[in-house]
Amino acid sequence: MSLIQIIDVGMEFAGKHVLNKINCTVEHNSRIGLIGSNGSGKSTLIRIMLGLLNPTEGTVIRARKLQIAYLAQNLNLDPTQTMLGFIHQARPDLLSLKTQIYELSALLQSAHDEATEAELSTAVDKFHDLGGDAYVLEIKYVCESLGFTEADYIKQLQLFSGGEQTRICLAAILLMPYDLLILDEPTNHLDMAMIGWLERYLNKSARPYLVVSHDRVFLDNTVSSVYHLEDAALSITKGNYSSFAQAYEIARNAQEKLFDRQQRFIAETKDFIARNIAGQKTNMAKSRLKMLSRMEVVQKPRLQKKINLDIKTADRSGNDVFTLQNVDFGISDELVLARGVTIEAHYQNRICIIGPNGCGKTTLLKILMGERDILAGKLKIGASLQIGYYDQHQIALDESLTVMETLWQLVPAEPRGYVLSWLARFGFRGDEVDKYVSVLSGGEKSRLYLCVLIHENPNLLIMDEPTNHLDMQMSDALLQALQNYPGTIIFVSHDRYFISQLARQFWVFHQLREGRKLKTTVSQPDLDMNQAIELAFRIPDAPANPPQVRERKKKVNPWHLEQLQKQIETEHKRIESFQTEIADKNQQLADPSTYADYQKTRQLQQEISNLLHQIDSSKELIGSLETEYLEKCYEE
After folding, report:
1. 461 and 489 Cβ atoms separated by less than 8 Å
2. What letter would DSSP give residue 552?
3. How large is the greatest C-alpha to C-alpha distance in the chain, in angstroms?
4. Are 507 and 621 contained in the same domain?
5. Residue 418 maps to a domain
6. Is the distance from CB of 329 to CB of 363 less than 8 angstroms?
7. Does residue 486 form part of some domain?
């Protein structure tokens, strides 16, 4: 039996069909890519599948006890909860058993009782049979693959960025027991290594999934059928995205030819009828009139709305845009992100910055815009630069303004018609121009931000993840505009198709080994996209294969493992505390008045040295505790 059957489903809002006569199934082996422009009804269809929305027409049949794991775009999390506490909620069965085991273990600690011991043994056996011991390692594997460390486990969710919170939700969802996985734009906050890992994870999975994505390469690598929503109707194509795109173009061309042929035939037939309805061939004319009334009319192919962004520049910049020589940059002297950076940007370059999440790509962009200082080295900024910056978080948008007011405040002397026509190029028409920025979706905010940016006619575009939240049509329009843009472009993106079509050079964050330490730098190698990606995510001298995990031979009470985990967490907190103290003492040392007091300077330096020694001791203890943890898990 199918997991989900959608039969003649329709959904109306305010008398307008968002979905009309939808028929599809989700099977036990489904690997579905759901695509369509923003507003086409993808989220509505998913909510109907989840049972969160009842259709106005048709039938939805779900398998009994169907468990669906769903990653939504809009998250509602408890900000005070820790990351590990949130992830543990993905397995309520194990959480309940752990609570029972801890309570029974505490009872045995206070007074030994054979009945309690037998009950504890049964609970431990059940915990083991449900994979409770392996779950800790699964958490470690998934979280590390998504860019988190064990030090992050104890942090509250409010301390993570929006993108990091999405990745935490993705980790929890992948660790859940489910019959069907539904992911809505899962790649938006992943770097290329994480996207590659997710592709491999899905391909190895024996369970079905449905993904909503505008990432063509991701869809090509993960799905075996494409569900396409357009004009409230759903079409299904077997194969990946490339197969769909080819079939869609062929079907569209065939329908155009069929429509044109039928229209010519109808016109000729009507002409014959008009000339002969009252003449000698009146019976033949009546017969053809009857034939026309019964004819099934071929629908005219939907006209693709042409989006012409056409980015212009007001003035030309100089030939040398940026020159960085042996530059160090980061958050502070204690937190250096990259060292020894020597790179250049020249007029009309198309440069893509590639590197892992958190490596410093956005920091580098802010340095180029003059919003951050370098820590060492030399930075030369070219003449006559007019910078347009696309911020992936769109923080420059004023949420108290409407869409129209956002643009009109830039050109207050222009008439209303000018503003409306400009907004229409970016898909804002009718009542949409009176929407407040605060209620716009991620895609709508991205379009509005582009609208404002392009209107400013910059000669240098610095763009941070410009395709996030854009549907394929708008992304293609932006790509074409950027390809024809006469200025210079420096951008960050994880969209491999977008990069392959735009970038001509790469600035690559990568690691070098200096003695026993790894140093992160940025270079400008003469590489293609795939080589640049490999360089960015390669760790020098890393083992070819990960160490093999031994099979557990002995059932272990998770209470004992929890005690070790608490010790590890305590040491991580101690390290954070020591690092805070070091930062405070460095700030004191930076005060010129401190150097007037030789004894105080020596004392601060000695205290910093002691704190660094304590950090090393804590790290050593963490290493031994983690070794003990694994030995307990896998001791013979």
Report:
1. yes
2. P
3. 122
4. no
5. no
6. yes
7. yes
Residue 363: C-alpha distances to residues 328, 415, 464 (Å): 12, 39, 11
- Residue 562 is assigned to a structural domain of this protein: yes
Same domain, 530 and 461: yes
Q: Which residues contact 30 (CB under 8 A, 6 or more apart)?
A: 3, 180, 208, 209, 210, 224, 225
What does pTM read for this prediction? 0.76
Q: Which two tokens stand for residue 253?
A: 């061309």
User: What whole-number distance in Å separates Cα of residue 102 and Cα of residue 260?
Assistant: 75
Closest by alpha carbon to 24, among 33, 15, 13, 16?
33
The single residue listed with the structure tokens 């050109």 is 411
Query: Is 334 within a domain?
Result: yes
Task: Please state the domain count of the chain.
Answer: 3
63-108 per-position pLDDT tens digit: 998 999 998 877 778 888 889 889 988 888 888 888 888 888 878 7
Which strands, in side-by-side order, build the sheet including 4-13?
16-26, 4-13, 57-62
| Per-residue model confidence as pLDDT tens digits over 417-465 | 888 988 888 888 888 888 888 888 777 888 888 888 888 889 999 999 9
- Co-location of 248 and 379 in the same domain: no
Please give the distance of CA 243 from its chain centroid, rounded to a whole number.
24
CATH of the domain at 522: 3.40.50.300
Judgement on whether residues 353 and 462 belong to the same structural domain of the protein? yes
Contacts 24+ apart (CB under 8 A), 379-383: 379/322, 379/323, 379/324, 379/325, 379/327, 380/320, 380/322, 380/323, 380/324, 380/325, 381/321, 381/322, 382/317, 382/318, 382/319, 382/320, 382/321, 382/322, 383/317, 383/318
| Full domain range(s) for residue 264 | 244-294
Q: With contact defined as beta carbons under 8 Å apart, do 489 and 469 qualify?
A: no
At 377, list the tokens.
């080295």
